[in-house]
Amino acid sequence: MRKYRINAAVLSAIGMGLGQIYNRQFAKGILLFLLYIAGIYFAIQNSGHALWGLMTLGEKKQHLELVGKIYKMVPGDHSIFLLVEGLIVLFALILLLIAYILNIKDAFVNGRLRDQGGKPNNFTQTLLYINDQKFPHIILSPPLLFAFFFSVLPLVFSILLAFTNYSSPKHLPPANLVDWVGFSAFKDLFTLSAWAKTFYGVFTWTIIWAVLSTVTTFFGGFAVALLVQQPGIRFKAFWRSIYMLPFAIPGFVSLLIMRNMFNSQFGPINQYLRWFGIPGPEWLSDPTWAKATILMVNLWLGFPVSMLLIIGILTTIPRDLYEAAEVDGASAFQKFRKITFPSVMFALSPILIGQFAGNVNNFNVIYLMTGGNPANSEYQFAGHTDILITWLYNLSINNGKYDFASVIGIIIFIILASFSIWNFRRTRMFKEEELYR
Amino acid sequence: MNNLQTHLNTPLKNRAKITLGYKMRRTIWLSISYLLLILIALYVLYPALWVILASFRPGTALFSDQLVPTRFTLIHYRELFEMFPFARWYVSTLKIAIVSMVFSTLLVLLTGYAFSRFKFNGKKKLMSGLFVLGMFPSFMSMIAVYILLLNMNLLNKHSALMLVYSAGAAMGYLLVKGYFDTIPKSLEEAARIDGASHWTIFFRIFLPLSRPLIVFLSVTSFAGAFNDFIFAQMVLRTNEQKTLAVGLYNMVSGQFATQFTIFAAGCVLIALPITVLFMIFQRFLVEGLTAGADKG
User: pLDDT for A162-172, tens place per residue?
Assistant: First the structure.
């Protein structure tokens, strides 16, 4: 009675597609079998080298070798390429393994159907079934495949880098090899005094920056929204369109323009100040002024989005709330404090938290305005205005300290991910899911 | 308003005076508001105005005695095309931005549709997972993506950028899901009874109902691809292959001090289409933004 399901599952476990063929699903079986052959071929071809690469990160340095009569530089193993290529193979094998397991499951299910006297779908029916019942799986697989290779793989790679000694000048491929060193990069970052000092300094400024930039743009936008939307102001749409401009102009263009405007010698701002007899400050090269300038520029860039959002919320607050408050004799300020402010905060607090997370990662403003400068002699590869993300960029792209950069990347990721997940799980949309089930 | 109460409690002969005072206060407050509005408008407009005027100024210097130049010239716009492969950069950037826009909009719409309308195992985990992946600093993944592209033989090619920009799109599914959640279930149920497939429902019911969302997604993804320079700088090696953002950045970081006015002309030509696009689709963009906020 029960033999079809067992036979089919065992056959599929021996070779993908065999169980399906046994279940008389020939087209599907043959396709799976072809995938199986290709997969086996791929695994035999690659997995040995990939595993060796992942474990050792290469064994031969670049070295001189006698070729004929002259010494020639012979390229050695490139540790980082070995690492990434190893991961690519590993990820492909994981996908194959998933396909293999699903194939056994499928053979088992169809075998059971036959045990119960049913007839498995033919190929056309299978396709129709997939298109109808497995629709979400189909449309999600391309984005998930992309995410798997372009996000998860790089993520794993960068986490692994933190456990290597990949850094210039001593361990920089192709000239040298990289090795696994365990937690030593973590230990060094927090215990070597110069590095620890830089880390805490940059970390503190990152938090200050993220809080201040979020708060200034939000309340700046709030104030402007109230100003535009108050009764008696005419041409509301006109003002709104003007204030949208910083949102519309490409960010990098605005930032590059601002950088020139704040040029302390030739820029127009100090020039105007000079007309009034005020010696303009060193906007971008004095540590304190540089921080203030960045915040000002960020306010210019960021307030329009908050303004538009808040105007959107303001129009949804029912008018009778205000009318009732007026009957009770509430002042304008009381109406704001008791009605407007809570409504806006209720609707926008998830967005506000999202903006905070975005500002922790706000690379463009810092990089394009100051590039982290002015330099701080007490810091390792960081300036006064550097936040974690720009410091990370500097460390990895410009200075080749990939191991430290990875540790910092992991720290940023942990902060942001826990923060965002907490925020995300509080949202109505996520909670409403429970109602469905 | 408590003004009204004081007003009612006051003896009759004083009322006229208070009403007048109230009106005066209101007029004064409105005038202050208009003044503030104008000041903020200046703060907002000034950088754009300054760079536009600078692009018409003769000479090359950043420094200028007056805001409005005494003589206008178009020479910097010509120099832009003569000294740099500006037209080529422009075409490449448009090509990359349009292709990425189409693919990423489609991908994110489909992802949002799947999460909004279907129940399946592990959905919540998948949703949180995709969301968190978007939080990882992109520079950290750049090295790995670089080697991945090298293996796929895509370095210094525009298709690499299109691939990477579209690949990340699905992580923004949240907005789409929020929007689709508001579309009533009865609509698709009726269509299902009439025998419509999921594809038909998606293309015939969901897409036509989400025009503001689609405009929002298209414009933002277009602008994202148009504006990105960090990744483009890493992938594109030769001068001819560059995008506008990379070209413009190199113009400033390389020879900026001597050629500021050409840079200004470049800024104007790059910012103009995007700004116009944003202004045309203003209504949809605001709707898209607030839709995201509403659904939280």
Answer: 888 887 777 77
Distance from CA of A152 to the nearest CA of B (A): 7
Q: With H, G, I as helix, E, B as strand and everything else as coil, classify residue A383.
A: strand
Burial of A52 per CB tally in 10 Å (0-12, 13-18, 19+): middle
Does A363 contact B at CB distance below 8 Å? yes
pLDDT at A437: 32
Which comes out higher in pLDDT, residue B44 or A431? B44
pTM (two decimals)? 0.82
Shortest alpha-carbon distance between residue B13 and chain A (Å): 23
A355 min Cα distance to partner chain B (Å) = 12
SS3 A122: coil
The answer to whether B214 and B207 are in contact (CB under 8 A) is: yes
Question: Quick one: pLDDT at residue A211?
Answer: 94
The letter for the amino acid at A217 is: T
How do residues B31-80 score in pLDDT, each as one tens digit? 999 999 999 999 999 999 988 988 888 877 777 777 777 788 888 888 88
Q: If you measure CA to CA, which chain B residue comes closest to A417?
A: B132
- For residue A26, the model assigns a pLDDT of 86
CA of A258 to nearest chain B CA: how many angstroms apart?
7
Mean pLDDT for A292-301 is: 93
A396 close to B (CB below 8 A): yes
What is the Cα–Cα distance from A13 to A26, expressed in whole angstroms? 17
Residues on chain A touching B249 (C-beta within 8 angstroms)? 252, 256, 368
CA distance B280 to A101: 52
Instruction: Tell whether the model's pLDDT for residue B115 goes beyond 60.
Output: yes
Alpha-carbon span A276 to B121, nearest angstrom: 68
- DSSP line for chain B: -HHHHHHHHS-HHHHHHHHHHHHHHHHHHHHHHHHHHHHHHHHHHHHHHHHHHHHTSSSS-S--S-SS-SS---HHHHHHHHHS-HHHHHHHHHHHHHHHHHHHHHHHHHHHHHHHH---TTHHHHHHHHHHHTTS-HHHHHHHHHHHHHHTT-TT-HHHHHHHHHHTGGGGHHHHHHHHHTS-HHHHHHHHHTT--HHHIIIIIIHHHTHHHHHHHHHHHHHHHHH--HHHHHH--STTT--HHHHHHHHHHHHGGG-HHHHHHHHHHHHHHHHHHHHHTHHHHHHHHHHHHHH-
Domains located in chain A, CATH noted = 3-182 (no CATH), 186-436 (1.10.3720.10)
Tens digit of each residue's pLDDT (9 = 90 or more) over A320-333: 888 899 898 888 88
A-chain residues near B264 (CB < 8 A)? 257
Residue A300 has pLDDT above 90, yes or no: yes
User: Between A and B, how many CB-CB pairs are < 8 A?
Assistant: 282
Cis peptide before A374 (omega within 30 of 0): yes
The residue behind tokens 């899901």 is B177
Chain A residues touching residue B139 (CB < 8 angstroms): 363, 389, 392-393, 396-397, 409
Sign of CA dihedral A158, A159, A162, A163: negative
**CA torsion angle for B30, B31, B35, B37 (degrees, to 10)?**
20
Residues 335-354, chain A, touching B (beta carbon < 8 A): 347-348, 350-351
ipTM over the 0.85 cut-off: no
